């Protein structure tokens, strides 16, 4: 199975968003994917009030003309305010890549708010009805999920969504949408997770996770 290489990653941080741009791909490919994510796949999370954006170019040394090209693409979304466009030394970039791939965030996602993350996300707090949480990886919510959650947004059907209290308005994994909660056949909604099995979304108790993720042999 071939894995699509993503040239642009968008990561939520405390004061806005960080755009991580691949430093090894062709410049035009980078701009095209940036444009595509702004207009199509990530449109939902890039709308609303003013969002501060920091652009990281990795080890790529961009000219002022190239930086201006990035600015002009991002400026098309009127609510995105560019704070910085920076290149990093190879050492700094290596340190960035060794950071744990799971992001931990806390708070409360209220109605009308959307939180997006690249990679696995551990969220300490509630997602209220009308709120949305999305991630390219797995989503673990230590709280009530009563809004919408979408894991594996780039097409990863192996992603899961787990919550301490699972009563969402809708669940999505990759392109697969869950049945309504009242059709799950589970009376209580505590410590559950959603996963994809044979092209359909299933819901089970969290202690059954080992059935789809076997533990490594312990010696």
Automatic annotation (TrEMBL):
<keyword id="KW-0131">Cell cycle</keyword>
<dbReference type="Pfam" id="PF22642">
    <property type="entry name" value="MinC_N_1"/>
</dbReference>
<protein>
    <recommendedName>
        <fullName>Probable septum site-determining protein MinC</fullName>
    </recommendedName>
</protein>
<feature type="domain" description="Septum site-determining protein MinC N-terminal">
    <location>
        <begin position="8"/>
        <end position="85"/>
    </location>
</feature>
<dbReference type="InterPro" id="IPR013033">
    <property type="entry name" value="MinC"/>
</dbReference>
<comment type="similarity">
    <text>Belongs to the MinC family.</text>
</comment>
<comment type="subunit">
    <text>Interacts with MinD and FtsZ.</text>
</comment>
<dbReference type="InterPro" id="IPR005526">
    <property type="entry name" value="Septum_form_inhib_MinC_C"/>
</dbReference>
<keyword id="KW-0717">Septation</keyword>
<dbReference type="InterPro" id="IPR016098">
    <property type="entry name" value="CAP/MinC_C"/>
</dbReference>
<dbReference type="InterPro" id="IPR055219">
    <property type="entry name" value="MinC_N_1"/>
</dbReference>
<keyword id="KW-0132">Cell division</keyword>
<dbReference type="InterPro" id="IPR036145">
    <property type="entry name" value="MinC_C_sf"/>
</dbReference>
<feature type="domain" description="Septum formation inhibitor MinC C-terminal">
    <location>
        <begin position="105"/>
        <end position="203"/>
    </location>
</feature>
<comment type="function">
    <text>Cell division inhibitor that blocks the formation of polar Z ring septums. Rapidly oscillates between the poles of the cell to destabilize FtsZ filaments that have formed before they mature into polar Z rings. Prevents FtsZ polymerization.</text>
</comment>
<dbReference type="Pfam" id="PF03775">
    <property type="entry name" value="MinC_C"/>
</dbReference>
